[in-house]
Amino acid sequence: MGLDLGVKTIGVAVSDPGRSFASSLGVIRRRGTEADLERLAALVREHEAALIVLGLPLHLSGKESEGSRRSREFARVLEQRLGLEVVLVDESLTTRDAENVLLEANLSRRKRKRAVDGLAAAFILQSYLNELRERPAGPGEIRGRE
Question: What is the DSSP string of 90-121?
């Protein structure tokens, strides 16, 4: 499962069972850490997620930002509460790329605003899936779902 953590929303995406492609589930509105964790736990169960890929917002220089600190803290809480590994992935430019795709699809500003965080989560997850495919499998590592 891929997440794009925002202040007001969390974009959510999942991969197919073969871990080949990511698709957006949309966004959940932030309602406080406890409510957010309950909703994410339900999505993890529903989609049988084995891992969470969380976007790490970095400056273009590669330096960390205030958003990076929030993502690292949220990753720690997710791991503790959901019992899943959380992988942080550089999310630089994913929101801009998502907005460009939605502009090309000729969506209205209102529809773009509702869809952008979910699509950004799909881009974050897809970048992780692409990286998985490109690196050699380690000893005993299984690619795809068991």
Answer: E-TTHHHHHHHHHHHTT--HHHHHHHHHHHHH
